[in-house]
Amino acid sequence: MRRALALATRGPAADPNPRVGCVLLDRDGEVVGEGWHEGAGTPHAEVAALAEAGSGARGGTAIVTLEPCNHTGRTGPCSQALLHAGIARVVHAQSDPNPLASGGAATLRAAGVEVSGGLLADQATALNRTWTFAQQHGRPFVTWKFAATLDGFSAAADGTSQWITREPMRAAMLRRRAECGAVLVGTGTVLADDPRMTSRDEAGQLAERQPWRVVLGVRDIPPAARVRGDDGRFVHLAHRDPDRSLQEVRELGVHHVWLEGGPRLAAAFWRAGLVDEVIACIAPALLGTGRPATADLGIGTIADIARLTTTEVIHEGEDFALVLQPNPGRTI
Which own/partner contact pairs does 161-166 have at CB distance under 8 Å and 24+ positions apart? Predict the structure, then answer.
């Protein structure tokens, strides 16, 4: 199973589908096939492993990080593929939380296949934490990222904001952003900064996989705005409803949203209870006045202060970032 988990990490984190790995053993316990899911529309991990194993899979064991799917989408059900290959035993880690695809274990058992689940399930779930969250909560997982000075400002008094943190931290955040299915900002950010909102590799070239570039707000986006691009990955949601925006973004196949909007947009998502992770990039610098990192959060007294739990500390160059969980009781 550890090998299957390692294979699963080769899949794209921002893909609409989960990352899945599979190892096939023959009757004697020897590895005869390996596979992983390379992205939507490509063979699932089990099918890829079966193609490598050929007849060697008959009577053998499939070890897979996620319960084999039981539905027909862009590809056929993996439960049926395993049955047709003559697999005698299936061991899976995480049970499938997607109601449209679950039930593979039951189908296999009904056909006489020995099935067991739960092996290294925590690690498998962590591998697909945002995809799992989206299946369980019916909306994408939201990471709110902002940069601020020590005194809490994200822009100077004249509105200039580039750059609060320096290049090493910005590069680290771009790597994290590339793992999200969509980057979401408000119209104010687009009109003020004219961002590209693209994903680039270490050499500064456009990455092969690009996130959706989502702009929320009723103001018009200029035809020449760089965020529009020419790849069809731009969406303007001409309203101000955070919950509605997440439902619309989910319809694009997104399970992880990177919220990079200004203080008012961030505050709106916070007040709606739609922020699941905060990444606060802090520069050892002072402005004294300017635009704060967030607008009114609806907190009027110290008794109502919102205390977050630190899950990670990132140190890049002279800057550092805190990765924070707003809801300490949440497990995913």
Answer: 161/192, 161/193, 161/291, 162/193, 164/281, 164/283, 164/285, 165/281, 165/282, 165/283, 165/319, 166/283, 166/317, 166/318, 166/319
Token match 């004697």: residue?
Answer: 28
Residue 268: C-alpha distances to residues 209, 240, 274, 315 (Å): 29, 9, 9, 29
Q: Which residue has the tokens 């009781």?
A: 329
- Exactly one of 30, 34, 38, 46 is catalytic; which is it? 46
Residue 91 CB contacts under 8 Å (≥ 6 apart), including other chains: 1, 61, 62, 63, 64, 115, 116, 117, 119
Whether cis (ω within 30° of 0) applies to the bond prior to 163 is yes
Q: What is the pTM of this model?
A: 0.92
Q: Is 46 known to be catalytic?
A: yes
Express each pLDDT in 189-221 by its tens digit: 999 889 989 887 766 777 778 899 999 999 999
Residue 94, SS3 per DSSP: strand
DSSP assignment string, 2-42:
HHHHHHHTTS-TTSSSPP-EEEEE-TTS-EEEEEE--STTS
* CB-CB neighbours of 302 under 10 Å: 6
Quick one: pLDDT at residue 89?
Answer: 98
Using one digit for the tens of pLDDT, what is the confidence trace for 129-169? 999 999 999 999 999 999 999 999 999 999 888 899 999 99
